[in-house]
Amino acid sequence: MKINGQTKLIGFLGSTFKTSKMYAMYNTAFKALRLNYIYVPLVAQDLKKSVEGIRHLGISAVGVTIPYKIEIIPFLDELDDNAKRIGAVNVVLNKNGKLIGGNTDGEGAVMALKEKTEIKGKKVVLMGAGGAARAIAFAIKNAGGKLIILNRTVGDAKELVKTIGCQFGGLEKLSELLTTDILINSTSVGMIPNINQSLVNKKFLHKKLVVMDIVSNPKETKLLKEAKEVGCQLVFADRMLLWQGVLKFEKYTGIKPPIKIMEKSLLNSKL
Ligand code: ATR
């Protein structure tokens, strides 16, 4: 990869920037396609000024992650329809000084699920009502899933459902799983260091259930481990990571993403 006067800079804005596997994934893809792009960490000290920096330094685009996905919105010029609906952004494109926010998280989750199951007409229980859940909920609804949102704080699920229009409830309704096709954990429960936690009682899991967890560390959460024991199909968080990144690559470059290369790089990269 040659850096020269035409090199386009893409940055990664977020507090977990140091340990992302995305550097390897994008830079390997740029190299393979001989694209004059580079993907680097951008550390935001002051978010508003940093966003102005994107504009004034001519940075082509940024990937946005925790904790800026919502906070960044007031500093952008526009949101695409998807980001507007979700109310969160995971990518910003700089179109001649105009900063446009988008979101590929939900679609990435749907693509990961579709590797294992059809979604249309399926009963889907989504646990959580935070930023990640919001993105996934809209995408599942778009894909034709019959969605039920269950959250510890029922009020948050109720709020989310106002814009989506589906069933909701508290976690005590997890017995619904007995007649459910797809379960998605979009809460942080099970994430390191709390690896012995799961919101789901194993007795509600059954063989025909496809279980997805957006917790990526550890790769096999307690929920997924128990689901595997029961014989469920599993969808790991790194598949969502891949697909949301593949979708972003296309936004960054306008070029068809080299999926196999990105996948291999993601598998091989260590944090
Ligand atoms: P993100 O943007 O990653 O989705 P978030 O907005 O902080 O993060 O949302 C975290 C989600 O995990 C919420 O749905 C939260 O439930 P509450 O709305 O009740 O807070 C859920 N969550 C976190 N810890 C939890 C726990 N110990 N038990 C149940 N749900 C939990």
Q: How do the strands line up in the largest sheet?
A: 2-1-3-5-6-4
Q: What would you report as the Rg, rounded to the nearest angstrom?
A: 19 Å
Specify the structural class. Answer: alpha/beta
Helix content: 25-40%
Q: Report, as a whole number of angstroms, the end-to-end distance.
A: 22 Å
Q: Can you list the ligands bound to this structure? A: 2'-monophosphoadenosine-5'-diphosphate
* Shape call: globular
pLDDT averaged residue by residue: 95
Low-confidence stretches: none
String of helices and strands: EHEHEEHEEHEHEHEEEHEHH
- Major sheet summary line: 6 strands, mixed
Number of helical elements: 9
Number of strands: 12
Structural summary, described in words:
The protein has 271 residues and is an alpha/beta fold. Helix content is 36%, strand content 19%. It has 9 helices and 12 strands. The protein has helices at 22-32, 47-57, 81-86, 105-114, 131-142, 154-164, 222-230, 237-253, 259-268, and strands at 8-13, 37-42, 61-64, 78-79, 91-95, 98-102, 123-127, 146-150, 167-169, 182-185, 210-213, 233-235. The strands form 2 sheets. A 6-stranded mixed beta sheet has the order 2-1-3-5-6-4. A 6-stranded parallel beta sheet has the order 9-8-7-10-11-12, sandwiched between helices. Strand 7 (123-127), helix 5 (131-142) and strand 8 (146-150) form a beta-alpha-beta unit. It starts with 7 loop residues before the first strand and ends with a helix. The model has no long low-confidence stretch (mean pLDDT 95). Bound molecules: 2'-monophosphoadenosine-5'-diphosphate. The site of 2'-monophosphoadenosine-5'-diphosphate has 14 residues, from helix 5.
